[in-house]
Amino acid sequence: MNGKIAVVTDSTAYLPDKVREQLQIHVIPLSVIIDGKAYREAEELDAADFYEMVKVAQNFPTSSQPAPGEFIQLFESLKSKGYETVITIHLSSGISGTFQNAASAGELIDGLNVIAYDSELSCMAQGMLATKAAEMALNDEPIDSIIGALNKIKQAQDAYFMVDDLNNLQRGGRLNGAQALVGSLLQIKPILHFDNKEIVLFEKVRTQKKALKRIEDILQTAIENKTAEKAYVIHGNDPEKGESWRKHLATKFPEVIFELSYFGPVIGTHLGEGALGLTWSIK
Q: What is the Cα gyration radius of the chain?
């Protein structure tokens, strides 16, 4: 036996409340700062309100990671409840210090085995890892098996997204400034993805329609390689557009399960309203 295992993730996994509660996943929120005021994601600010507030904000919103003290408090609380191991899964260490803060905090708790896991992605790609870990932990599976399963999912995972406006990524320091300028001048719809834990330009496409088609072609290859069994369409405050693409994909690729998710406030500060993404992996 492993002893009790707890699963922790952060708010950028954008897990549905029902899933979080059913699987007993503990969530540490990141924050967004709008005009000097910090809001804890999901706790003090939901996605719809965030996008409305940004429209009238004086300054560009920014995001901030949880302090190590928040992790220490949560880990101590889990230890007091009889947990012996914590698997804490976070957004890519290439775009946030959250993973590092979780790892550092874990080293300070005596008598608790804290395994910090870098998703190397974010949003429901990270959420898929957290739900898998939690399902296995509830079934009393050994730690090595859980980490092995996470590694398999991560290896098969991919995520592509396009943004309506490159300025958010440029101002947030997540994309090179020259690329942003070129994109806005030529009305380019860039396709972005995670490479080596960072958000980079994958390809420049002229229209949104062509960008979506290109992402579908990449998905087709993943299906042929048996690395796409479940996928999430992710939208930036445009559920209608997201659902429309989800339905189209479900018809075109009936062998894949497609669900709808969203870019919440923290990731929304970087991608902006109207962004659309697709992430997939094995089940």
A: 19
Name all domains of the chain by residue range, CATH numbers in brackets.
4-30+65-155 (3.40.50.10170), 158-281 (3.30.1180.10)
Return the H-helix or E-strand segment holding 138: helix 123-138
Give the distance, in angstroms, between the CA of residue 122 and the centroid of all CA atoms in the same chain.
Answer: 2
Per the CB < 8 A criterion, the answer to whether 95 and 62 are in contact is no
Cα separation, 9 vs 91, in Å, equals 8
- Measure Cα distances from 50 to 29, 39, 243 in Å: 15, 10, 20
pLDDT in tens, 210-253: 999 999 999 999 999 999 999 999 999 999 999 999 999 999 99
Exposed (0-12), middle (13-18) or buried (19+): which is 13, by Cβ within 10 Å? Answer: buried
pLDDT, tens digit (0-9, with 9 covering 90-100), for 102-122: 999 999 999 999 999 999 999
Instruction: Give ∠ CA 62-103-63 in degrees, rounded to 5.
Output: 5
- Whether pTM > 0.70 for this model: the answer is yes
